[in-house]
Specification:
Elements lengths: L1 E4 L2 E6 L3 E3 L2 E4 L5 E3 L5 E3 L4 H22 L5 H14 L17 E2 L9 H7 L6 H18 L7 E7 L2 E7 L8 E3 L1
């Protein structure tokens, strides 16, 4: 999931990767750095989403070198769109999607369980601490109700200062350790 808050954006995800009913990995990092200022959340076919993220990262690196400036989110989204559509017959990634600004976005198998939570607890212009609490609460609900979600909660907080990674562990009731 991804949310806006007063000073930036927070991305968050659980860490469980499944293959049918089998848990293939309990500590996957679904938050992927694409460029210095752009990250993405991955859900779906792990191999395909990792490959697409790597290819987009490569293209954005080339863009920064050729243009002499960091790419925008719009440029990154266009490259994601082009790669996914061009390779639609080879990837296990659903087609569709759109590019528009919104306060929060949720996806993945656990998302169906947290629409009500998000609608009830969402507040515009939250502080960073409140935003982290909101994402943590939503992901805890997804983990609680969705058998394909689980493991640790990872977040990245993106502000003008840069990226800050957070990790919350189930054996500590998702209270810490926090900053990585």
């Amino acid at each position: 999931m991804a949310i806006t808050f007063a000073d930036g954006v927070i991305l968050g995800a659980d860490s469980r990767t499944t293959t049918g009913a089998y848990i293939a990995n309990r500590v996957t990092d679904k938050l992927t750095r694409i460029s210095d200022t752009i990250w993405c959340c991955r859900s779906g076919s792990a191999a395909d989403t990792q490959a697409v993220a790597d290819i987009v990262s490569y293209h954005l690196g080339m863009y920064a070198t050729m243009e002499g400036e960091q790419p925008s989110v719009g440029v990154a989204a266009s490259i994601f769109q082009e790669i996914c559509y061009t390779n639609k017959d080879q990837l296990s990634i659903p087609l569709g999607g759109s590019l528009h600004r919104q306060s929060y976005a949720i996806g993945g198998s656990g998302s169906t369980y947290i629409y009500g939570y998000c609608d009830s607890y969402w507040k515009e212009d939250m502080s960073e601490a409140d935003g982290v609490g909101f994402v943590k609460g939503a992901l805890r609900e997804a983990i609680k109700w969705d058998g394909s979600s689980g493991g640790v909660i990872r977040m990245v907080v993106l502000t003008q200062k840069g990226a800050k990674r957070l990790l919350f562990l189930p054996d500590q009731n998702y209270e810490g350790p926090g900053e990585m």
